[in-house]
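queue> holo job accepted (adenosine-5'-triphosphate)
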Amino acid sequence: MLQVEALEKSFDGFMAVNGATLKVERGDVVAVIGPNGAGKTTLFNLITGQLPPTAGAIWFKKENIAGLAPHRVCRKGISRSYQVVNIFNRLTLFENVQVAVLSRRRKTFDLFRPAKTIAVDETRRILDSVGLLDKWAMTSGALSHGDQKVLEIAIALGNRPELLILDEPTAGMSPEETAVTLRLMKRLSGELGLTILFCEHDMGMVFSIATQIMVMQQGRTIIQGPPDEVRNNQQVRDAYLGGADECSA
Ligand SMILES: Nc1ncnc2c1ncn2[C@@H]1O[C@H](COP(=O)(O)OP(=O)(O)OP(=O)(O)O)[C@@H](O)[C@H]1O
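queue> job finished
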């Protein structure tokens, strides 16, 4: 579904991404791991069009999408959430998701129809699928940090993506919130059949959900493979995991 080849991104001569490769098959849950500054977020920004690559190719469903603008990448079927929560704080949960659904349908609010009656079923269905339906009328800024990150996933689902990209979905979460997010991601990939690409520092989370793990260091891909292969790779242990125990979750 997605294949990244020899991807490069230079910031004034500094190679943040330096020949990275990545393969995502339909139905996979792929984790990108690596130390701080390895280039994970930059890689995601390149895939979703927030940054243009310096070199390389990004094949999505057999089309090279490298350098396409974010809204065009989104229309191709790739949605993402961010490391830092990105929602409209003063809107309700319903309104936040409704805006995303309308944007996909290329509709805006019309003067003659009350906003509350537009795209109601789909918006409610999405909120239900992430477990936030009971809070639909709340102001989004009043949600807990964990629920705000889940709302971001709901907003991304408004685009009906085939590939969902999540940048540190559990960053700043309590252990309980992390467990909820983990369950949600399992449901999205299982019941809804979504393909998921995410980066994450919590190794317990990574090793309990990922079907494939890609390890990045200094902008390069060290290895990509199933969790067991990555766990047992000596280069990964030496370069990143720093010992035998950290990835044994
Ligand atoms: N816009 C930019 N201008 C200059 N340097 C940048 C820019 N964005 C990222 N970098 C640098 O590129 C490198 C990779 O950063 P990136 O945020 O992609 O790493 P990361 O693996 O996501 O790190 P973390 O795990 O801490 O989020 C870092 O050294 C960072 O300082």
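queue> Residues 1-77+161-249 form a domain with the Rossmann fold fold (CATH 3.40.50.300).
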